[in-house]
## 1
Amino acid sequence: MERQRVIDTFVDEMVATIHPDDPERAAAMRAWLPAELPPAPSAEQIEAWVELGELAADPAVRRCLRAVEGEVGQGPVLEWAGAAVRDGVDPASARGRVIAAAIAGDLPPQRWAELATRVERYCDERFERYWALLMILNGQQPVAPAAPLFAWLAAALRAAA
Protein backbone atom coordinates (compact mmCIF):
# COMPACT_ATOMS: atom_id res chain seq x y z
CA MET A 1 0.00 0.00 0.00
CA GLU A 2 2.86 2.40 0.82
CA ARG A 3 4.48 1.69 -2.58
CA GLN A 4 1.17 2.46 -4.29
CA ARG A 5 0.96 5.79 -2.42
CA VAL A 6 4.55 6.67 -3.42
CA ILE A 7 3.90 5.89 -7.08
CA ASP A 8 0.55 7.74 -7.09
CA THR A 9 2.22 10.81 -5.58
CA PHE A 10 5.09 10.51 -8.07
CA VAL A 11 2.71 10.32 -11.06
CA ASP A 12 0.69 13.31 -9.83
CA GLU A 13 3.82 15.37 -9.18
CA MET A 14 5.43 14.59 -12.54
CA VAL A 15 2.29 15.44 -14.49
CA ALA A 16 1.62 18.62 -12.49
CA THR A 17 5.17 19.98 -12.70
CA ILE A 18 6.18 18.98 -16.22
CA HIS A 19 3.05 19.73 -18.25
CA PRO A 20 0.80 21.93 -16.07
CA ASP A 21 -0.56 23.97 -19.01
CA ASP A 22 -0.79 21.24 -21.65
CA PRO A 23 -3.62 18.82 -20.88
CA GLU A 24 -2.92 16.65 -23.95
CA ARG A 25 0.75 16.09 -23.06
CA ALA A 26 -0.19 15.59 -19.41
CA ALA A 27 -2.72 12.92 -20.43
CA ALA A 28 -0.14 11.19 -22.63
CA MET A 29 2.39 11.27 -19.81
CA ARG A 30 -0.14 9.93 -17.30
CA ALA A 31 -0.97 7.08 -19.70
CA TRP A 32 2.72 6.02 -19.64
CA LEU A 33 3.08 6.36 -15.88
CA PRO A 34 1.18 3.40 -14.46
CA ALA A 35 -0.79 4.16 -11.32
CA GLU A 36 -1.05 0.45 -10.57
CA LEU A 37 0.21 -2.93 -11.69
CA PRO A 38 -1.47 -4.41 -14.74
CA PRO A 39 -3.94 -7.26 -14.13
CA ALA A 40 -2.12 -10.61 -13.88
CA PRO A 41 1.37 -9.06 -13.95
CA SER A 42 4.40 -11.09 -14.96
CA ALA A 43 7.26 -11.61 -12.51
CA GLU A 44 9.27 -9.07 -14.52
CA GLN A 45 6.47 -6.50 -14.18
CA ILE A 46 6.27 -7.07 -10.43
CA GLU A 47 10.02 -6.54 -10.13
CA ALA A 48 9.75 -3.41 -12.31
CA TRP A 49 6.91 -2.11 -10.10
CA VAL A 50 8.99 -2.57 -6.97
CA GLU A 51 11.99 -0.83 -8.55
CA LEU A 52 9.83 1.98 -9.92
CA GLY A 53 8.55 2.55 -6.39
CA GLU A 54 12.14 2.88 -5.18
CA LEU A 55 13.01 5.30 -7.98
CA ALA A 56 9.83 7.31 -7.40
CA ALA A 57 10.72 7.75 -3.72
CA ASP A 58 14.15 9.22 -4.55
CA PRO A 59 14.06 13.06 -4.75
CA ALA A 60 17.17 13.03 -6.99
CA VAL A 61 15.34 10.87 -9.53
CA ARG A 62 12.39 13.26 -9.52
CA ARG A 63 14.71 16.20 -10.17
CA CYS A 64 16.42 14.27 -12.96
CA LEU A 65 13.14 13.43 -14.68
CA ARG A 66 11.77 16.96 -14.38
CA ALA A 67 15.00 18.34 -15.86
CA VAL A 68 14.97 15.93 -18.78
CA GLU A 69 11.32 15.56 -19.74
CA GLY A 70 10.58 17.36 -22.98
CA GLU A 71 14.12 18.72 -23.48
CA VAL A 72 15.39 17.07 -26.65
CA GLY A 73 13.46 15.41 -29.46
CA GLN A 74 14.87 11.94 -29.96
CA GLY A 75 13.87 10.89 -33.50
CA PRO A 76 16.65 11.89 -35.94
CA VAL A 77 18.93 12.92 -33.08
CA LEU A 78 19.33 9.32 -31.95
CA GLU A 79 19.47 8.00 -35.51
CA TRP A 80 22.32 10.32 -36.46
CA ALA A 81 24.21 9.91 -33.20
CA GLY A 82 23.62 6.14 -33.30
CA ALA A 83 25.03 5.89 -36.81
CA ALA A 84 28.05 7.94 -35.75
CA VAL A 85 28.68 5.71 -32.74
CA ARG A 86 28.25 2.52 -34.82
CA ASP A 87 30.65 3.90 -37.47
CA GLY A 88 33.22 4.82 -34.81
CA VAL A 89 33.13 8.54 -35.65
CA ASP A 90 35.26 10.55 -33.24
CA PRO A 91 33.01 13.32 -31.85
CA ALA A 92 35.90 15.81 -32.21
CA SER A 93 36.55 14.90 -35.87
CA ALA A 94 35.42 16.99 -38.82
CA ARG A 95 32.64 14.46 -39.50
CA GLY A 96 31.59 14.59 -35.84
CA ARG A 97 31.36 18.38 -36.03
CA VAL A 98 29.26 18.18 -39.21
CA ILE A 99 26.85 15.76 -37.52
CA ALA A 100 26.68 17.97 -34.41
CA ALA A 101 25.92 21.01 -36.59
CA ALA A 102 23.15 19.11 -38.40
CA ILE A 103 21.59 18.07 -35.11
CA ALA A 104 21.90 21.58 -33.63
CA GLY A 105 20.02 22.93 -36.65
CA ASP A 106 19.34 26.66 -36.44
CA LEU A 107 20.83 27.01 -32.97
CA PRO A 108 23.80 29.39 -33.20
CA PRO A 109 27.20 27.77 -32.50
CA GLN A 110 27.76 29.96 -29.42
CA ARG A 111 24.85 28.08 -27.79
CA TRP A 112 26.07 24.57 -28.63
CA ALA A 113 27.86 24.13 -25.30
CA GLU A 114 24.59 25.00 -23.56
CA LEU A 115 22.80 22.40 -25.68
CA ALA A 116 25.53 19.87 -24.80
CA THR A 117 24.83 20.46 -21.11
CA ARG A 118 21.13 19.81 -21.67
CA VAL A 119 21.87 16.70 -23.74
CA GLU A 120 24.12 15.35 -20.95
CA ARG A 121 21.05 15.09 -18.73
CA TYR A 122 20.01 12.14 -20.87
CA CYS A 123 23.19 10.31 -19.92
CA ASP A 124 21.91 9.76 -16.38
CA GLU A 125 21.41 6.03 -15.72
CA ARG A 126 18.36 6.79 -13.57
CA PHE A 127 16.59 8.33 -16.55
CA GLU A 128 17.40 5.30 -18.70
CA ARG A 129 16.29 2.88 -16.00
CA TYR A 130 13.03 4.78 -15.44
CA TRP A 131 12.09 4.42 -19.12
CA ALA A 132 13.10 0.76 -19.18
CA LEU A 133 10.83 0.09 -16.18
CA LEU A 134 7.92 1.93 -17.81
CA MET A 135 8.32 -0.15 -20.96
CA ILE A 136 8.29 -3.36 -18.92
CA LEU A 137 5.21 -2.24 -17.00
CA ASN A 138 3.49 -1.34 -20.27
CA GLY A 139 4.20 -4.80 -21.70
CA GLN A 140 6.96 -3.70 -24.08
CA GLN A 141 10.57 -4.75 -24.42
CA PRO A 142 13.03 -2.09 -23.24
CA VAL A 143 15.01 -0.47 -26.02
CA ALA A 144 18.79 -0.32 -26.18
CA PRO A 145 20.27 2.33 -23.87
CA ALA A 146 20.52 5.73 -25.51
CA ALA A 147 22.89 7.27 -22.95
CA PRO A 148 26.02 6.44 -25.02
CA LEU A 149 24.46 8.18 -28.02
CA PHE A 150 23.67 11.29 -26.01
CA ALA A 151 27.18 11.24 -24.54
CA TRP A 152 28.62 11.13 -28.07
CA LEU A 153 26.38 14.02 -29.14
CA ALA A 154 27.33 16.14 -26.13
CA ALA A 155 31.02 15.54 -26.87
CA ALA A 156 30.52 16.43 -30.56
CA LEU A 157 28.65 19.63 -29.67
CA ARG A 158 31.39 20.68 -27.26
CA ALA A 159 34.07 19.92 -29.83
CA ALA A 160 32.24 21.92 -32.49
CA ALA A 161 31.34 24.88 -30.26
Note: The longest helix spans residues 2-18.
## 2
Amino acid sequence: MKYHFDISAENPEAAGSASSEIKKTLKSLHIHADAVRRASIAMYEAEMNMVVHGGGGTADVEITDTEIIIIMEDQGPGIPDIDAAMEEGFSTASPDYLEMGYGAGMGLSNIKKNTDFMHIDSAAGKGTKLILRINYK
Protein backbone atom coordinates (compact mmCIF):
# COMPACT_ATOMS: atom_id res chain seq x y z
CA MET A 1 0.00 0.00 0.00
CA LYS A 2 1.25 3.44 -0.89
CA TYR A 3 0.20 6.83 0.44
CA HIS A 4 1.14 10.38 -0.59
CA PHE A 5 0.74 13.57 1.41
CA ASP A 6 1.47 17.19 0.62
CA ILE A 7 2.79 18.91 3.73
CA SER A 8 2.09 22.64 3.95
CA ALA A 9 4.11 25.05 6.05
CA GLU A 10 1.31 27.61 5.91
CA ASN A 11 -0.53 26.27 8.96
CA PRO A 12 1.83 24.87 11.65
CA GLU A 13 -1.13 23.80 13.80
CA ALA A 14 -2.18 21.36 11.06
CA ALA A 15 1.26 19.77 11.00
CA GLY A 16 1.17 16.17 12.07
CA SER A 17 -1.97 15.30 10.15
CA ALA A 18 -0.12 13.02 7.72
CA SER A 19 1.62 11.10 10.50
CA SER A 20 -1.69 10.85 12.36
CA GLU A 21 -3.37 9.41 9.26
CA ILE A 22 -0.59 6.83 8.85
CA LYS A 23 -0.86 5.90 12.53
CA LYS A 24 -4.59 5.18 12.07
CA THR A 25 -3.86 3.14 8.95
CA LEU A 26 -1.15 1.07 10.64
CA LYS A 27 -3.44 0.36 13.60
CA SER A 28 -6.24 -0.72 11.25
CA LEU A 29 -3.81 -3.16 9.61
CA HIS A 30 -3.07 -4.65 13.06
CA ILE A 31 0.63 -3.88 12.80
CA HIS A 32 2.46 -4.39 16.08
CA ALA A 33 1.93 -1.45 18.45
CA ASP A 34 5.67 -0.81 18.87
CA ALA A 35 6.13 -0.41 15.10
CA VAL A 36 3.09 1.88 14.95
CA ARG A 37 4.52 4.03 17.75
CA ARG A 38 7.99 4.22 16.19
CA ALA A 39 6.66 5.03 12.71
CA SER A 40 4.32 7.67 14.12
CA ILE A 41 7.07 9.39 16.10
CA ALA A 42 9.58 9.31 13.24
CA MET A 43 7.09 10.60 10.69
CA TYR A 44 5.75 13.30 13.02
CA GLU A 45 9.25 14.59 13.78
CA ALA A 46 10.12 14.62 10.07
CA GLU A 47 6.84 16.34 9.26
CA MET A 48 7.50 19.04 11.88
CA ASN A 49 11.05 19.56 10.59
CA MET A 50 9.62 19.97 7.12
CA VAL A 51 7.17 22.63 8.36
CA VAL A 52 9.59 24.49 10.65
CA HIS A 53 12.70 24.34 8.44
CA GLY A 54 11.83 23.13 4.94
CA GLY A 55 8.86 25.25 3.92
CA GLY A 56 6.67 22.16 3.55
CA GLY A 57 7.11 19.30 1.10
CA THR A 58 5.86 15.79 0.45
CA ALA A 59 5.58 12.54 2.38
CA ASP A 60 5.35 9.17 0.69
CA VAL A 61 4.68 6.06 2.74
CA GLU A 62 4.77 2.46 1.61
CA ILE A 63 3.58 -0.34 3.84
CA THR A 64 4.90 -3.74 2.80
CA ASP A 65 4.50 -7.15 4.40
CA THR A 66 7.57 -6.54 6.58
CA GLU A 67 8.32 -2.83 6.83
CA ILE A 68 7.09 0.74 6.71
CA ILE A 69 9.04 2.96 4.32
CA ILE A 70 8.70 6.71 4.74
CA ILE A 71 10.19 9.22 2.30
CA MET A 72 9.99 12.88 3.28
CA GLU A 73 11.22 15.51 0.81
CA ASP A 74 11.30 19.30 0.85
CA GLN A 75 12.80 22.06 -1.27
CA GLY A 76 13.92 24.14 1.71
CA PRO A 77 17.34 25.56 2.49
CA GLY A 78 18.86 22.15 3.23
CA ILE A 79 20.99 21.07 6.17
CA PRO A 80 24.51 22.51 5.89
CA ASP A 81 25.95 20.32 8.68
CA ILE A 82 24.11 17.02 9.12
CA ASP A 83 26.40 15.86 11.94
CA ALA A 84 25.61 19.00 13.98
CA ALA A 85 21.89 18.69 13.19
CA MET A 86 21.92 15.12 14.57
CA GLU A 87 23.07 16.39 17.98
CA GLU A 88 20.29 16.64 20.56
CA GLY A 89 19.49 20.27 21.25
CA PHE A 90 20.86 21.65 17.96
CA SER A 91 18.24 23.89 16.34
CA THR A 92 17.97 26.54 13.69
CA ALA A 93 14.28 27.22 14.32
CA SER A 94 13.17 30.83 14.10
CA PRO A 95 12.14 32.70 17.27
CA ASP A 96 8.50 32.50 16.11
CA TYR A 97 8.57 28.69 16.03
CA LEU A 98 10.48 28.53 19.32
CA GLU A 99 7.74 30.63 20.94
CA MET A 100 5.14 28.14 19.64
CA GLY A 101 7.08 25.30 21.31
CA TYR A 102 8.72 23.87 18.19
CA GLY A 103 12.40 23.60 17.34
CA ALA A 104 13.80 21.97 20.49
CA GLY A 105 16.51 20.28 18.46
CA MET A 106 15.34 16.72 19.08
CA GLY A 107 13.77 15.95 15.69
CA LEU A 108 16.53 14.15 13.80
CA SER A 109 17.83 12.31 16.87
CA ASN A 110 14.28 11.14 17.70
CA ILE A 111 13.81 10.00 14.10
CA LYS A 112 17.04 7.99 14.25
CA LYS A 113 16.07 6.41 17.62
CA ASN A 114 12.72 5.27 16.22
CA THR A 115 13.78 3.82 12.88
CA ASP A 116 15.71 0.77 11.76
CA PHE A 117 17.20 2.72 8.86
CA MET A 118 17.60 6.44 8.27
CA HIS A 119 19.29 8.15 5.36
CA ILE A 120 19.52 11.94 4.95
CA ASP A 121 20.32 13.49 1.58
CA SER A 122 20.77 17.22 2.08
CA ALA A 123 23.10 20.14 1.61
CA ALA A 124 22.84 23.89 1.95
CA GLY A 125 20.58 25.28 -0.79
CA LYS A 126 19.52 21.81 -1.95
CA GLY A 127 16.56 20.79 0.20
CA THR A 128 16.33 17.63 2.24
CA LYS A 129 15.24 14.07 1.55
CA LEU A 130 14.81 11.56 4.38
CA ILE A 131 14.41 7.86 3.75
CA LEU A 132 13.19 5.95 6.81
CA ARG A 133 12.43 2.27 7.39
CA ILE A 134 10.70 0.63 10.30
CA ASN A 135 10.70 -3.17 10.34
CA TYR A 136 7.73 -4.90 11.93
CA LYS A 137 8.19 -8.60 11.16
Note: The helical segments are 17-28, 33-52, 82-85, 95-99, 107-113.
## 3
Amino acid sequence: MMRKPGIYAVLVMLLFAACQANQTEVPVKRFGSVTGLKPEKMEYYKKLHANAWPEVLKKIKQCNIRNYSIYLQKIDSSYYLFSYFEYVGKDFDADMKKMADDPNTQKWWKETDPCQQPLPETAAKKQIWTNMEEVFHTD
Protein backbone atom coordinates (compact mmCIF):
# COMPACT_ATOMS: atom_id res chain seq x y z
CA MET A 1 0.00 0.00 0.00
CA MET A 2 1.38 3.42 -0.98
CA ARG A 3 1.30 6.19 1.63
CA LYS A 4 0.22 9.69 0.72
CA PRO A 5 2.74 12.43 1.48
CA GLY A 6 2.09 14.24 4.75
CA ILE A 7 0.99 17.85 4.84
CA TYR A 8 4.49 18.99 5.90
CA ALA A 9 6.10 17.22 2.96
CA VAL A 10 3.64 18.87 0.56
CA LEU A 11 4.29 22.31 2.09
CA VAL A 12 8.05 21.84 1.81
CA MET A 13 7.74 20.79 -1.84
CA LEU A 14 5.51 23.79 -2.61
CA LEU A 15 7.86 26.18 -0.85
CA PHE A 16 10.85 24.76 -2.71
CA ALA A 17 9.04 25.04 -6.06
CA ALA A 18 8.02 28.64 -5.31
CA CYS A 19 11.57 29.60 -4.41
CA GLN A 20 12.92 28.04 -7.59
CA ALA A 21 10.29 29.79 -9.72
CA ASN A 22 11.15 33.21 -8.23
CA GLN A 23 14.89 32.89 -8.74
CA THR A 24 15.95 34.98 -11.68
CA GLU A 25 19.60 35.08 -12.53
CA VAL A 26 20.87 38.65 -12.18
CA PRO A 27 23.74 39.20 -14.56
CA VAL A 28 26.85 40.35 -12.73
CA LYS A 29 29.28 42.66 -14.47
CA ARG A 30 32.72 42.91 -12.88
CA PHE A 31 34.80 46.10 -12.91
CA GLY A 32 38.45 46.62 -12.13
CA SER A 33 40.15 50.00 -12.21
CA VAL A 34 43.40 51.63 -11.15
CA THR A 35 44.63 55.04 -10.08
CA GLY A 36 47.66 56.41 -8.31
CA LEU A 37 47.80 57.46 -4.66
CA LYS A 38 49.79 60.46 -3.51
CA PRO A 39 52.27 59.19 -0.89
CA GLU A 40 51.68 62.16 1.41
CA LYS A 41 47.92 61.39 1.38
CA MET A 42 48.19 57.62 1.98
CA GLU A 43 47.47 57.64 5.74
CA TYR A 44 44.53 60.01 5.34
CA TYR A 45 43.08 57.89 2.52
CA LYS A 46 43.38 54.73 4.63
CA LYS A 47 41.79 56.49 7.61
CA LEU A 48 38.85 57.66 5.49
CA HIS A 49 38.20 54.15 4.23
CA ALA A 50 38.63 52.56 7.66
CA ASN A 51 35.65 54.71 8.71
CA ALA A 52 33.70 54.99 5.46
CA TRP A 53 30.60 57.13 5.83
CA PRO A 54 27.42 55.05 6.25
CA GLU A 55 25.49 57.30 3.83
CA VAL A 56 28.06 56.64 1.12
CA LEU A 57 28.03 52.89 1.75
CA LYS A 58 24.23 52.91 1.56
CA LYS A 59 24.30 54.79 -1.76
CA ILE A 60 26.80 52.30 -3.18
CA LYS A 61 24.36 49.47 -2.43
CA GLN A 62 21.39 51.46 -3.75
CA CYS A 63 23.32 51.86 -7.01
CA ASN A 64 23.60 48.06 -7.37
CA ILE A 65 27.29 47.77 -6.53
CA ARG A 66 28.38 44.72 -4.53
CA ASN A 67 31.72 43.27 -3.38
CA TYR A 68 33.48 46.62 -3.63
CA SER A 69 37.13 46.45 -2.61
CA ILE A 70 40.12 48.77 -2.94
CA TYR A 71 43.69 47.47 -2.74
CA LEU A 72 46.96 49.38 -2.36
CA GLN A 73 50.26 48.43 -4.02
CA LYS A 74 53.63 50.14 -4.26
CA ILE A 75 55.34 49.69 -7.64
CA ASP A 76 58.85 51.12 -7.88
CA SER A 77 58.50 54.39 -5.99
CA SER A 78 54.81 55.01 -6.73
CA TYR A 79 51.63 53.89 -4.97
CA TYR A 80 48.62 52.56 -6.84
CA LEU A 81 45.05 51.78 -5.87
CA PHE A 82 43.21 48.91 -7.51
CA SER A 83 39.44 48.78 -7.14
CA TYR A 84 37.12 45.87 -7.84
CA PHE A 85 33.34 45.73 -7.71
CA GLU A 86 30.43 43.81 -9.12
CA TYR A 87 27.46 45.57 -10.70
CA VAL A 88 24.13 43.74 -10.41
CA GLY A 89 21.74 46.37 -11.80
CA LYS A 90 20.16 46.84 -15.20
CA ASP A 91 21.22 50.42 -16.08
CA PHE A 92 24.82 51.14 -15.13
CA ASP A 93 24.87 54.69 -16.50
CA ALA A 94 21.67 55.66 -14.62
CA ASP A 95 22.99 54.15 -11.38
CA MET A 96 26.33 55.95 -11.74
CA LYS A 97 24.46 59.23 -12.35
CA LYS A 98 22.37 58.61 -9.24
CA MET A 99 25.58 58.12 -7.26
CA ALA A 100 27.26 61.20 -8.75
CA ASP A 101 24.19 63.34 -7.96
CA ASP A 102 24.16 62.27 -4.30
CA PRO A 103 25.30 65.14 -2.01
CA ASN A 104 26.97 62.80 0.51
CA THR A 105 28.89 61.03 -2.21
CA GLN A 106 29.98 64.40 -3.63
CA LYS A 107 31.33 65.38 -0.17
CA TRP A 108 33.11 62.01 0.09
CA TRP A 109 34.75 62.51 -3.29
CA LYS A 110 35.94 65.98 -2.20
CA GLU A 111 37.89 64.15 0.51
CA THR A 112 39.17 61.21 -1.56
CA ASP A 113 39.84 62.79 -4.96
CA PRO A 114 42.75 65.02 -3.80
CA CYS A 115 44.47 61.89 -2.44
CA GLN A 116 44.52 60.19 -5.81
CA GLN A 117 46.92 60.62 -8.70
CA PRO A 118 45.23 59.59 -11.98
CA LEU A 119 47.21 57.89 -14.71
CA PRO A 120 48.15 60.41 -17.43
CA GLU A 121 45.67 59.20 -20.07
CA THR A 122 42.84 59.30 -17.53
CA ALA A 123 43.84 62.71 -16.14
CA ALA A 124 43.67 64.07 -19.71
CA LYS A 125 39.97 63.08 -19.72
CA LYS A 126 39.47 64.78 -16.31
CA GLN A 127 38.79 61.40 -14.71
CA ILE A 128 40.46 59.64 -11.78
CA TRP A 129 40.09 55.88 -12.16
CA THR A 130 41.29 54.03 -15.27
CA ASN A 131 39.12 51.04 -16.23
CA MET A 132 40.99 47.79 -16.62
CA GLU A 133 40.35 44.94 -19.04
CA GLU A 134 39.26 41.67 -17.48
CA VAL A 135 41.40 38.88 -18.92
CA PHE A 136 40.40 36.02 -16.62
CA HIS A 137 37.65 35.09 -14.17
CA THR A 138 36.48 31.91 -12.51
CA ASP A 139 33.74 31.20 -10.00
Note: The beta strands are 29-37, 65-75, 78-87, 116-117, 130-131.
